[in-house]
Amino acid sequence: MCNGGRIKHHLDRHLERDNATVLFVGYQASGTLGRQILETRGKSGERVRLFGRFREVRCAIEQVRGFSGHAGKSQILAWAAALTPAPTRAFVIHGGENVTQGFAAELRDRFGWEAVAPEYGQTLAL
């Protein structure tokens, strides 16, 4: 929803970068900063208020639909199996190290994807 926490600092640094992308995974409730940003998609010159200043949204805004932030492993695997077209890469970023490494291995084995569980602070090229 982007209303608190570190995400606001990430947005502050990247919203005005035309070479950046903000990717929303899941629902953004009405009245939240996340929804405001999402609604700027495809509109030139749109601005949002962040830390008391207006920021022009120059970055690309994308949204992954059909993904629940509350899904379990089997639900995520079913969702992944239904993706069309199927991706060739996946980043597993939520969970403890053993869990993320194990899930990345399962994605590689089951789907043949390049699946990575990045280390904290690691930067990866998309």
Tally of separate domains = 2
Cα shape: elongated
Question: Reading side by side through the largest sheet, how are the strands ordered?
Answer: 1-4
Please give the count of helices.
4
| Cα end-to-end separation | 24 Å
Ordered list of secondary-structure elements with their pairings:
Layout: H1 6-14, E1 21-25, H2 33-38, E2 47-50, E3 53-56, E4 60-64, H3 73-81, E5 89-91, H4 97-111, E6 114-116
Parallel strand pairs: 1-4, 5-6
Antiparallel strand pairs: 2-3
Descriptive terms for the model:
single chain; 126 residues; alpha/beta; 4 helices; 31% helix; elongated
Short description:
The chain folds into two domains: 59 residues, no CATH class; 44 residues. With 126 residues, it is an alpha/beta fold.
What features would you describe in this structure?
The protein is α/β, with parallel strands linked by helices and about 130 residues long. It has 2 domains: about 5-65, no CATH class; about 75-115. It has 4 helices and 6 strands, in the order αβαβββαβαβ. The chain has helices at about 5-15, 35-40, 75-80, 95-110, and strands at about 20-25, 45-50, 55, 60-65, 90, 115. The strands form 3 sheets. A two-stranded parallel sheet has the order 1-4. It has a two-stranded antiparallel sheet with strand order 2-3. It has a two-stranded parallel ribbon with strand order 5-6. A hairpin with a 2-residue loop joins strand 2 and strand 3.
